[in-house]
Design brief:
Organism: Rhizobium lemnae
Low-confidence stretches: none
Subunit structure: Homodimer.
EC number: 3.6.1.66
Keywords: Hydrolase, Magnesium, Metal-binding, Nucleotide metabolism, Nucleotide-binding
Mean pLDDT: 93
Number of strands: 6
Helix content: 25-40%
Family: Belongs to the HAM1 NTPase family.
Structural class: alpha/beta
Order of helices and strands: EHEHEHEEEHH
Strand order of the largest sheet: 2-1-3-4-5-6
Number of helices: 5
Largest sheet: 6 strands, mixed
Length: 214
């Protein structure tokens, strides 16, 4: 494993919600970071079929463009009753004809397909959020970190916190959805804590333990 010997990195994302969450996680470690969106980098085509492949594509593109280490995230919602969909195509389910993303529409689509398949009980609506972080250097070296959190799909969206599919994901052991949790509650982890709740926080915890001297 290669250690990160700088606190200047690029957050390889154009997703405002994801950039905000990563900024919340890296902030306590004193990082000076700009996003690929701020730097006007072109979004690379995500042609991978796994979270690991797409995270690597994004991180390498930003690292090589900036000449700095870059941290990317590829994440998605994996629903058992939908044979793992939407999975790596989680964002695609929210795409509209004009090129924008409508996650309210995407959540309705999830519910419609679950109803079509007769998945009406909590036991039939199991799911997990997956996050894979990729740390890439300009020389092409990469490190990957995967985090997952189990839960169920709520029958209707609840809450306005977070982003994406957060209002319909209820993590195991909780009565609230990610959409009803503050950022602190959703991540459930800060330096020195033993536990992390969200998929992204769990992946980030492994990144910290592996690549940072803390």
């Amino acid at each position: 494993m290669r250690k990160l010997d700088t606190r200047t990195i690029v957050v390889a994302s154009h997703n405002s919600g994801k950039i905000r969450e990563i900024a919340d996680l890296i902030g306590p470690f004193g990082f000076a970071a700009k996003s690929a969106a701020e730097l006007n980098f072109i979004e690379p085509d995500e042609t991978g079929t796994t979270f690991e492949e797409n995270a690597t594509i994004k991180a390498l593109a930003s690292a090589k463009a900036a000449g700095l280490p870059a941290l990317s995230d590829d994440s998605g919602l994996v629903i058992d009753a939908l044979d793992g969909a939407p999975g790596v195509y989680t964002a695609n389910w929210a795409e509209t004809p004009d090129g924008t993303r409508d996650f309210a529409m995407a959540m309705r689509k999830v519910e419609d397909v679950l109803q079509e398949r007769g998945a009406t009980t909590a036991q039939q609506r199991t799911a997990r959020f997956v996050s894979v972080l990729c740390l890439a250097w300009p020389d092409g070296h990469t490190e990957l970190f995967r985090g997952e959190v189990e839960g169920v799909i709520a029958p209707a969206p609840r809450g306005t916190q977070g982003f994406g599919y957060d209002p319909i994901f209820q993590p195991s052991g909780y009565s609230t959805t990610f959409g009803e949790m503050s950022a602190e509650e959703k991540h459930g982890w800060k330096p020195g804590d033993a536990q992390a709740l969200s998929h992204r926080a769990r992946a980030f915890k492994i990144f910290v333990e592996t690549c940072l001297d803390v």
